[in-house]
Amino acid sequence: MKNFVLTALILALLLNGWLVAYFAVPNYLELIAIGLFSLLIMSIIKERYVFLYAITVTLLYGAYLTVTSFGQSLPEDMQLQYMYTHLLFTSFHLIFWMLMNAVKKIGYQNIELQHQLQLLQKYRKGSQILTMKEFKDQAEWLLKSTARNGKEAYFLRIELESSTKKTKQNLQEMLERVALQSIRQKYDLVSSEFGNIYVLLKDTHKEGVDIVMDRFKENSQNELNFITPPYQFQQIHIKDSQQLNELLGTES
Amino acid sequence: MTQVIMLIMLFFWMLLIFYSILTISGVWYRVRFKKPQKLSNYPSVALLIPAHNEGIVMEDTLRAMARLKYSGQLDIYVLDDNSKDDTAEIAKEFAAVFSRIHYIPVPVSSPSGKSRVLNYGLSISESDYFVVYDADNEPEPDAVELLVEVAEQTKKAAGAVGYVKTKNARTNTLTRMIGLEFQVFQLLMQCGRWQFLKLGSLAGTNMLLRRSVLEELGGYDVNALAEDAELTVRLHAKGYVLPVVPESKTWEQEPEKLTTFFKQRTRWLTGNIYLLEKSFKDLSHWRGKTFFLSLQHVLTYLVFVLVLLFSDIFFIMSVMGMELPNMEAPLLMLWFMSYIVYTAQLLSALVVDRNVSPKNVFFIFIMYFTYAQLFIILLLRSVTVYVWSRLRGNTIAWDKTKRFKGLG
After folding, report:
1. Residue B51 vs residues B71, B126, B271: alpha-carbon distances, Å
2. Phi, psi values for residue B175, rounded to 5°
3. pTM, whole model, 2 decimals?
4. Which of A216, B185, B239, B308 would you call most buried, defined as having the most Cβ atoms within 10 angstroms of its Cβ?
């Protein structure tokens, strides 16, 4: 249906332009010039002003034709010609407005759908790493339940240290995989941003965090050639989701 | 004769230009309108509903009133003007349940009408502001709060006016056309006047006023049939402004039958003729901003209809092959432009109100030839009624619009 409407509007616009040229209505050259100018203006201004522009030029052009009719004391047949000219001018602007409206509506729907998709996505593309939004949402539940059970939760930040530009992306992907292997599956949470990997460890204590860090080091050493690991750990005892959001806020 | 016609043409031009500017200003105001900021303290408001035999709509009205959300003190008064139907019964039922709804019987006196009832409502209530709703109105929950927020944040505001939408627009051709007309005159022209001239006009419903301002003006004029229009002029003459709040919406019934429509509009037009007469006698109606209000009255209620009449006469003459008066004016072009401006207003109203549909667009293209023509008959009828009652020294009785049941 949308394709049909767009096609119909484009055809109507072309037909309108053709009618102006074919019938060579009075002042048709200036009509075409204004039409082209309007196409440009209506394409670049904000959507909410497009109709305002269309209706303003339509009324102004009508006023111009009426003043000309007054000034030149035009006979009735010429006035009729002016009326046809104005009708073509008006229909051209209104059809283009409808076209812009339809195109921009599709654009807005697309942006909205992308936004909705982002909200629905749990994992980053092609990995089991949680999206940042999902990480924060799940962390809220996780921290509430930890607090109610009288247990502790720890936030572990793994910061990648400078590496060559060419290898940094792959290094991060490899370390993300290592992080997923080093945590308790379906229990702890992992997310990441470029240059950082975040792990939230539930119902644990300081010794438990050290175990995870050792496991991470061990697993990464099997894959890397570095003597000194190309990352640094930072562990923080987390009490509530607000504290976590502040930490993530300062990170990102 | 030619000179008279030329004079009319001059007014015709003024009208076209004036309405074209208002249309563009109205669209400009609507696309840029932002909701007002919240207040730290909300003043008290008395909501007045004049009611005379409104049983058919009262339940729906009070249901909507009970849903109103207001962050300050809000008291709703049903002002029962000697109803003989079940208006009192319904209002009392709501008043028994909801603490902020009150049923008030208004003592019988003369002259009858909305102005007297409103004056009584003001005498029995206490509040910083009062807001008026007709008895068939169903305001949206945030309607009153929005009016108050804008009134409090606008310098020299006497109150604020909202938007009146048609509840039964889809019932038949007449209600659809009234609905479209309201979109232009209740919304687009209101917004345009406010944007361009800082003028708002009271719509008779969904309108908020500061109590102290009305007290300063001496209350409602009990002889005015179009009390809202009359009060608007007095407010502006005192230097107050009335901001327009398009987001504050109420839904109202419009006449579903031509006879009801003629009765209602005759009352409105007669009221405006009364106002015209008053403005010709009282020079304060032509000072400052009030000049534009009075001018608009003359243009809308006199010149527009005369121009319409002349354009019809010329049209019939040319169809019958009769020779048109010899004038140095492009009559055809002027007639065409009046159609374009009228239709542009309607189309703009549809666009800013986001209810463009093939059916509505079809109606706006034919309204100039159908609905607009009714105003010639209406003006002739109203002038006759007014002149006749003036000659006989009678007061024109206030006459309530008939309500309908079962609306969508």
Report:
1. 26, 20, 20
2. -65, -35
3. 0.71
4. A216
Query: What pLDDT, in 10s, does the model give residues B173-229?
Result: 999 999 888 888 778 888 988 898 888 888 889 999 999 999 998 888 877 767 788
Residue B333 and residue A51: Cα distance in Å, rounded? 24
Mutate which of B28, B332, B352, B355 to disrupt the A interface (most A C-beta within 10 Å)? B332
Share of chain A above pLDDT 70, in %: 98
| CA distance readout (Å), B114 to A197, B80, B389 | 71, 11, 20
Q: H or E element: which one contains B111?
A: none
Token pair belonging to B242: 């009335």
- A69:B336 CB<8 A: no
DSSP letters along A213-248, please?
HHHHHHHHHTT---SS-SEEEEEEEE-SHHHHHHHH
Rg (CA), chain B: 21
**pLDDT tens digits, one per residue of A93-151:** 989 988 888 888 888 889 989 888 877 888 877 778 898 888 998 999 899 988 888 88
The per-residue b/e assignment along B58-68, b for 16 or more CB within 10 angstroms, e otherwise, is bebbbebbeeb
**Rounded Cα–Cα distance for residues B222 and B50 (Å):** 14
Distance CA A24, CA A30 (A): 11
DSSP 8-class letter at B127: -
SS3 A204: strand
With a threshold of 0.90, tell me whether the complex ipTM lies above it: no
> How far is Cα A51 from Cα A96, in angstroms, rounded to an integer?
10
Residue B330: its chain A contacts at CB < 8 A?
66, 69-70, 73-74, 79
Instruction: Report chain A's terminal Cα–Cα distance, integer Å.
Output: 43
Instruction: Specify the residue for token string 């009335």.
Output: B242
SS3 for A147-193 is HHCCCEEEEEEEEECCCCHHHHHHHHHHHHHHHHHHCCCCCCEEEEE
Residue B272's identity, in one-letter code, is: N
Q: For residue B20, list chain A residues with Cβ-Cβ distance below 8 A.
A: 59, 63
Contact by Cβ (8 Å): A212, A199: yes
**d(Cα A206, Cα A145) in Å, to the nearest integer?**
19
Which residue's structure tokens are 């200003």? B25
**Which helix (H) or strand (E) is B209 found in, with range?**
strand B207-210
Per-residue pLDDT of A148-184, as tens digits, reads 888 889 999 999 886 677 777 788 888 888 998 888 8
Q: Are B229 and B271 in contact (CB under 8 A)?
A: yes
Q: How are strands ordered across the β-sheet holding A231-238?
A: A189-193, A196-204, A152-160, A231-238
Please state, as a whole number, how many other Cβ atoms lie within 10 Å of the Cβ of residue A217: 14
Q: Which of residues 26-65 of A touch B (CB under 8 A)?
A: 48-49, 51-52, 55-56, 58-59, 62-63, 65
Q: Which residues pair with B251 in a beta bridge?
A: B138, B165
B-chain residues near A66 (CB < 8 A): 330, 333-334, 337
